[in-house]
Amino acid sequence: MGDLFDKFQPLIDQRETLLSTGVTDPFNLVMERVVSPTVAICNGRETILLGTYNYMGMTFDPDVIAAGKQALDDYGSGTTGSRVLNGTYAGHKACEQALKDFYAMDHAMVFSTGYQANLGIISTIAGKEDYIILDIDSHASIYDGCAMGNANIVPFRHNDIEALEKRLQRLPEGAGKLVVLEGVYSMLGDIAPLDKMVPLAKKYGAMVLVDEAHSMGFIGEHGRGVAEAQGVIDQVDFIIGTFSKSVGTVGGFCVSNHPKFEIMRLVCRPYVFTASLPPSVVATAATSIRKLVHGSNKRAHLWENSKKLHAGLKALGFTLGTDEPQSAILAVIMPDLERGAAMWEALLHEGLYVNLARPPATPAGMTLLRCSLCAEHSSEQVDQIIGMFAAAGRATGCID
Amino acid sequence: MTDRASTDAKIKELIEPFNKKGVEVSDATRFAQDLEWDSLTVLDFVANIEDEFDILITMNQQAEIENVGQLVDAVMQLKGA
To answer: Which of A161, A261, B54, B60 lies 20 to 30 A from A314 at CA?
Structure first.
């Protein structure tokens, strides 16, 4: 009898080999206490957090917390139902209104996670006979949405405008076409040339979906993302985002100006067949989104942090995912998984938490230490972080 | 040379730069197991095939193609479509 777990054996072996070197398990860290958006207690030690997606530091915002507490008191701990049955409360509508106002768009639909937003929207709008053209480095939720809708999937090389155009040219006449792009790609922290790609997709009659999960609140004049920053947001049909990054809670959403968008509430299975978000969550999300509108000072400080850390790490001799800082994510490229894990552990001993990313989640089999900055990191903390990288890098032989 | 033979020859020519281990290529040669290609190599190679024959090979179709012979057949079919 075949054991269905046999297919995981290579990964089980790799993990055991790594842990047998005595390294702390990088995928099993517990935050014992969270002190602020940038500091937590891990293994009894005060640790600077550089591996959260809390870009705008909203998780401890007093107004956000107060809104959540009030909603808990007023509406209880959960809705115990789907959005299309008993699970739509005033707070869900208020949250969708906050999103419509934030993006200046006609429609907003809130999902229980960002993963479900991509899964639901993509699988529902692109079906069996349709074509989805996507960047090869797209997030797992995008690929899963493609697979669930059973569409024809056509990948193109990461951020390659010419490769995108060649594929658009070859699509069958009259077929349904959806181009899926991301504003910021989370592994290397690089941005897409949306100003070129979105008009190109339109030229060939494709609809365009842009996932702005890692740019919301930070990039663009109003924090609407890379499409806004590059002046093409009006040509984008669907923007997908999440509450688990800049918004500081959990949930996902899609905003759109499509006149028929509201029908999605009835036909999108990951929206219909799941419980809606608890009232406290949508209350914190709505409050946070409304505050992000006025976040220009925070945005400016976050850019300063990103530039300072990028320059500091580069000066130490680390190889980074981008030549210039393009977002709040900075990926430090490690020579291999073993040294990446050793470096990750050395940083933890220094009092710094970053994310260790490894294949298959990473492009080209790379091992990365992914740093994501927060607007609440002080300039002094960024100096400390650079010092910790210097010490850990020398201790592990990653730098001279 | 028949059309299939010329397609086959062209595909083998395009395989060569990615044939790092110098594996002898026949119809039965498998991309993952014999040539040991990873996903990025597959992407580059497929892009070259698509450009050469001006066709699209979707990921859904790629999943069905395990060896060189199957690829030649698929390209023939896509060229004819």
So the answer is: A161
